[in-house]
């Protein structure tokens, strides 16, 4: 494959999109980045409008995830899946979609992806990809967790989900605020927590996940945002991100 590939990057994390752009910039004769999106909905709009040859697609995203996006496509471009989790079978995805990159992506690993892309001459197996997605969606379904484990010195503390008001990413850590007003710290990334939490939690910002049952009041804010007033001891105010507007409206039935 010698032509320049029209490329779209879809990932809810800006640093991840920036990293891919830096890696792609090393190969200006092979890739032309024609668009990027921070969520599945915008990504779908860009795909329909620009008809790219290649997608770098994150699997775990708020609202519409990567798998759900693919299911809405009639013509599927070449796909390189990206994820921070290794609970998917990498070999299987490499066979059916082309490739799978585990974040953070190294230059050495990316160069192998480029080599594959340059040799890729066949169309994506639509049925095979759909069957694979169905298989993995079934495999990753796990029983809902009921508590979060916090390491404190030599001890493990179990914080019940029902006692948690919200999670907030701060630098390299995630703060866990309880309804009682207590703070806990975990080193688990917010995105990993989002994957494990039940539907009683909702991500309202790239750095915030709230317990729906702990939301006392919801107020309109400027620029399509909302203020969440939590029912914790501190009556915490949390501000949503604009890109999370759709799923928030869906939750409170404002659409």
From TrEMBL:
<dbReference type="Pfam" id="PF04397">
    <property type="entry name" value="LytTR"/>
</dbReference>
<dbReference type="InterPro" id="IPR011006">
    <property type="entry name" value="CheY-like_superfamily"/>
</dbReference>
<dbReference type="InterPro" id="IPR001789">
    <property type="entry name" value="Sig_transdc_resp-reg_receiver"/>
</dbReference>
<dbReference type="InterPro" id="IPR007492">
    <property type="entry name" value="LytTR_DNA-bd_dom"/>
</dbReference>
<dbReference type="GO" id="GO:0003677">
    <property type="term" value="F:DNA binding"/>
</dbReference>
<dbReference type="Pfam" id="PF00072">
    <property type="entry name" value="Response_reg"/>
</dbReference>
<protein>
    <submittedName>
        <fullName>Two component transcriptional regulator, LytTR family</fullName>
    </submittedName>
</protein>
<dbReference type="InterPro" id="IPR046947">
    <property type="entry name" value="LytR-like"/>
</dbReference>
<feature type="modified residue" description="4-aspartylphosphate">
    <location>
        <position position="58"/>
    </location>
</feature>
<dbReference type="GO" id="GO:0000156">
    <property type="term" value="F:phosphorelay response regulator activity"/>
</dbReference>
<feature type="domain" description="HTH LytTR-type">
    <location>
        <begin position="148"/>
        <end position="254"/>
    </location>
</feature>
<feature type="domain" description="Response regulatory">
    <location>
        <begin position="6"/>
        <end position="118"/>
    </location>
</feature>
<keyword id="KW-0597">Phosphoprotein</keyword>
């Amino acid at each position: 494959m010698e032509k320049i590939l029209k490329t779209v990057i879809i990932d809810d994390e800006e640093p991840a999109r920036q990293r891919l752009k830096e890696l792609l910039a090393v190969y200006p004769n092979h890739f032309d980045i024609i668009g990027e999106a921070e969520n599945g909905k915008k990504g779908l709009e860009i795909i329909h409008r620009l008809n790219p040859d290649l997608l770098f697609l994150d699997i775990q995203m708020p609202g519409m995830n990567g798998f759900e996006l693919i299911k809405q496509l009639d013509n599927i471009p070449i796909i390189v899946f990206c994820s921070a989790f290794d609970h998917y079978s990498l070999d299987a995805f490499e066979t059916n979609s082309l490739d799978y990159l585990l974040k953070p992506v190294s230059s050495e690993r990316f160069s192998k992806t480029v080599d594959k892309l340059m040799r890729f001459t066949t169309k994506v197996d639509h049925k095979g990809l759909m069957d694979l997605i169905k298989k993995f969606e079934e495999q990753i379904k796990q029983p809902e967790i009921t508590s979060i484990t916090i390491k404190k010195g030599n001890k493990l503390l179990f914080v019940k989900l029902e006692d948690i008001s919200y999670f907030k990413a701060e630098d390299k850590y995630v703060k866990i605020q309880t309804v009682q007003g207590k703070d806990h710290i975990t080193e688990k990334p917010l995105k990993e927590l989002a994957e494990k939490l039940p539907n009683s939690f909702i991500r309202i910002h790239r750095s915030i996940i709230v317990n729906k049952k702990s939301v006392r009041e919801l107020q309109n804010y400027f620029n399509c945002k909302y203020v969440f007033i939590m029912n914790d001891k501190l009556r915490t105010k949390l501000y949503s991100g604009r890109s999370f507007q759709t799923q928030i409206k869906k939750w409170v039935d404002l659409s």
